[in-house]
C-alpha cells in the first residue's frame, strides 16, 4: 500500500489554486493575523469559502484562455509536425530518388526509340529519329494563310512558364494515320534527350489513355475523389517498357508538377471505350485545371474529342485546338529517303554481323546510299506519276504502307482499301514465305481469323485484348481451319505476333493490332462476309462514331447507294454534319453509287456549302479585324472552319460542271473564279502542298469571298492558279487527262461573239447573247498573252492525250528529273517509236524533229512553262539560242550552240559537262534536257529550236 505522500494528486485545478492561495495568505507577511485566527480554531469553512470563491472566479475567467491556448498550440504543433514530416519525406525522397530523373529519362529513350508500325516487327525495328518527319500543324482556323508551323511553335519558350503560355492546354486532332502517337513519342524522346535550345528542359510524361483508364479508380468514395495525376504516374511508370526497375516517388512527381517542370502528353482520347470516356474526360479536364503550371497536350481523332448535341459527356476545356496537315511533297520525299536509308542501314548492319564481313564505314555508306538512291527513286517515280496515288500518300501511316508494299512488290495500289488488302496479304502470305518463315495457316485462313477477332473487338468497343479473352472468340473458326491438326491457339497467336506483325503485345498478355485501322479494315471485311446480317448491324451503327472508319472501309468494297441514302435521311432529321461528312466520304470512296443518290447528296452539300461560305467569311472577317475570338459553328457541334475548305471544294467542283464548249476537246467555265475559290489555292501554297512563288500573306486582309470576282491578280498568279487546278482530283468528270489553262486571245474573242459578261450570283458569268458587247466594259479576262492586263480569271479545260498524264503529274509535283525523262519518252512515242525499238535506233533524229507535230510541241512547251513559272521550256531555250547568234533554219551553228550551253548551265570551263540541276535550281532554260538515246547531240537540240520557231513557240 502506498504512503499518503506517494498517492497521486487527483485535485482539480480550482482546488490546487485554492490551496496555493491559502498558503500564500497564511505564509505571506500581510496574512499573519489571518494565520493566527486560523490557529485559534476559527472555522476553516469560512476562510475556505472566501478563497474558493475567489479561485473559482479566477479559473472561470482563465480556463477558456488556457483551453484556447492548448487547442491552438496542439493545432500548431500538429501542423508543424505534418510540415516537418512532409519535409522529412521530401528530403528522404530526394535522397532515395537521387538520380531518378536521369534513370527515368534514359528509360524514356528506350521506350520511344522506334517506330511502332512499319511492317517488320519480327526484325530490329526502324529507329524513330532516323525515319521521323516533322508534321505540319495549324490551328482549327483553316482560313489562316500564315504558312507552315510545327508543334514547337505552340510550346512554351525558355523565358516562359507554362502558366504564361497562351497554349498551355493543347488538343491535337487528326484522322487515323496522321502520326499523332508518333508525334507524342517524338516529343517525349526529344525532351528526354536534347530539347531545342529555346524551350524549357521539361520532364516528359507520356500517358496513352487506353492504357491508363483502368487505373482511374476511386481513392475516397465519400469525397468522390479519383487518383491524382502524380498517383497515376507512379503506378503507371513501372508497367512501361524499360521502366520495370524504376521506383518512382509520388513526392518527387508532386514537386516537379508543382514547379511546372513537366510536360504531360495524353495520347488517344478516342481509343478509350465509350463506356469509360465520360469518366476519362472528367479526370483529364480536372488534371488540366488542378495543375495550372503544367504544359498539357492531348491527342484524339476529331470524333473522340468533339461533343455531339445528344452526347451528355464532359467537355475538356483547352486553350488551343490544332490539326495535323496532310504530308506535302517535300515531306513525302524526305520520308521515303529516310525510310529506305534506315531500312538499308539496318539490313547492312545485320548482314555484316551474320556473315562476319568487315567493310570499312565508307564502303558501307557508299553501298547504302546507292541502294537508297535506286529504291527511293523508283518509289518516287511511281508515286508522283499518278495523281490518285499521290493523294493516297497523304499521311505517315499510308506512306509507310506504300513503302512496305513497294519494298515487296513494285506494283502499287491506287485505292486505300486496296492498299490495306495488299498489306494484309503481304504480312500474312508473301513476305513471311519470302523470308523463309512459314505460317502454318494460309493467308486466307489467317485473315478470316483476324477478321473474326477484329469483329469481336468492335462489338465490345475495345482496341486491346488478352489471350484468355480472345481465344474463345476464334476457337470454333480455328478448329475448322486446322482440320484436326496439332495446331493450337497459342501457336496461332505467336505466329501472328512474331511473323506477320499485325498484332503486337503492348504489355504482358495484353495485345492490340499494330494500328487501329487494321482492326477497322478487317472488321469491315467481316461485315461484308456476313452479308445482309452484317449490313443490318452496320446500318444500326451509322451514328456510332466508333464505326466511322469501318463504314468507310466497307463502303470502299460495295455499292454505297443505300448507305448514302440512309445517311442523308438521318441528316435531314438531325442536321448533324457528322452524318453529311460521312455520306460524302462513302460516296467518294465507294465502288459505285446511283446517279440519283449522287445528285441528292450533291444538292444537300451545295446547300450547306452556300451557308458555310457566307458564314465562314463573316467569321473570318471578325477574326482578322480582331473583333472576335468566337468559335463559329455550323451546328451539330462541328466547328465552321473545319468544313470551310471542304465546302469550298464542293462549290469549285460544281462550278466546273457548268461549262461552255469551244471545240470538241476544249471548254471554258461559264463563271469567273471567285475569291473563295482562289483562297483554296493560297492555302495549299501556304502549307507547301503546291509550290508556287505566290505570297499568301498579302491576302490576309483581302475580302476573298464568293461575291468578289474582280481579283487583284498578276498574270503569273492567274497562271499559277490554273496550274494548281491540275492537283484537284475531283474536278475531272472521268478518267481522261485534262490541262487547265488561261484562254488564248483568239478563244476569248470567239467566246465574246456569243456571250456577254453579266453580274450573276457569285461574280461575272457568261450569258448567251446575240450582241458581242461587255456589260462591264472596264473588265477584261486574263488570257495567255502576258501583254494583256486582266481583271477576271476564267479557266479553260482542255482534254489531252492519255500519254501526257504522267508528265503533268511529274511537273505539278516539281519532279524535274522524272519530267525530263517522261518528256523524252512522250516525244519518242509521238514520232511512232515503240519501246522495243529504242535500243536499236538513234531515236529522235533531225528528220523526226523537222516533222514533229506542232500541236504536241506547243502542248509540251506550255506544260513546262506553266509548271516552272516560265523558267523552263523549249520556247525559253529557243530564245536563248537565238540571242546567242543561232538561226532557226535546222542548221547547226557551233558558236551559238556553245553560247547556249554556257547560258543554260550545260557547258562549263570550255567543256560540255551536262551537270543537270534536277532540283529546279538551274538557270533559265536549264530544262528540258531530253537526252533521248543517252548521248546529247547539239545538232538535234538546235533542230528542236528551229521546229519551235516554225510552230510559233
Automatic annotation (TrEMBL):
<dbReference type="Pfam" id="PF05419">
    <property type="entry name" value="GUN4"/>
</dbReference>
<dbReference type="InterPro" id="IPR016187">
    <property type="entry name" value="CTDL_fold"/>
</dbReference>
<dbReference type="InterPro" id="IPR027417">
    <property type="entry name" value="P-loop_NTPase"/>
</dbReference>
<dbReference type="InterPro" id="IPR008629">
    <property type="entry name" value="GUN4-like"/>
</dbReference>
<dbReference type="Pfam" id="PF05729">
    <property type="entry name" value="NACHT"/>
</dbReference>
<dbReference type="InterPro" id="IPR037215">
    <property type="entry name" value="GUN4-like_sf"/>
</dbReference>
<dbReference type="InterPro" id="IPR007111">
    <property type="entry name" value="NACHT_NTPase"/>
</dbReference>
<feature type="domain" description="NACHT">
    <location>
        <begin position="168"/>
        <end position="302"/>
    </location>
</feature>
<protein>
    <submittedName>
        <fullName>NACHT domain-containing protein</fullName>
    </submittedName>
</protein>
